[in-house]
Structures are given as C-alpha cells and as structure tokens.
Automatic annotation (TrEMBL):
The keyword Transmembrane helix applies. The keyword Cell wall biogenesis/degradation does not apply. This is Lipid A biosynthesis-like protein. One of its GO terms (biological process) is lipid A biosynthetic process. The chain crosses the membrane at residues 20-40, 52-74, 80-100. GO terms for molecular function: lipid-A-disaccharide synthase activity. Residues 26-97 form the Lipid A biosynthesis N-terminal domain. GO terms for cellular component: membrane. Keywords: Membrane, Transmembrane, Transmembrane helix.
Amino acid sequence: MTDIIGMLTNYLYDVFVTQFDGWVVLGFVAQGFFTMRFVVQWIASERARKSVVPVAFWFFSIGGGTLLLAYALYRRDPVFIAGQALGLVVYFRNVYFIMLNGRQSST
C-alpha cells in the first residue's frame, strides 16, 4: 500500500510540479473559460426558469476553444486538436446566426 501511495505521489508531483510551465497555465485559463460558459448558461436558465443559451455562452466557448486548441497544438495531441477545431466551427457558426438574426431567442 505504501508503494502505491508513493507512486501516486510521484506521479502527481511530476504532472503538477515538474511539468508546470506557461502552457499549463494557458490550459488552466482555457479550461476556466469552458467552465464559465456552463456557469453562465446555468444562471440564465435558473433566472428564466427554463433552458436558455445566452450569447455569452458562445463567446466563452470561442475563448476557451481557441485557447485549448493552441494548447492542444503545442502538446501535439491529434484527438484534442480535432475536437477543439471542430467545436470552434460550431461556436463561430452560432455567433454568425446570432449576428445575422439579431439577439438569440431562449430555447
């Protein structure tokens, strides 16, 4: 059991201390943007007492997606790159529709 705890401690130290650099900070900032989009959506839905997707949701999605794509490109992770790049297409398309049709209606 002591060996497992020691291995876990070494792993966590390597991941969170040894590998810590500016790119890791960028990754955490990007993840913060992604988390905020759900917080914004949750608050808007609670206030409206129905499911609502506010415009801010899409802007946090674009911010988080762009930063996470930069992080994924740096890390050379093809799965992460593909996921973030395709997500950005959806986010920008939704903002385009909002600009084209005026303020987004609640759904």
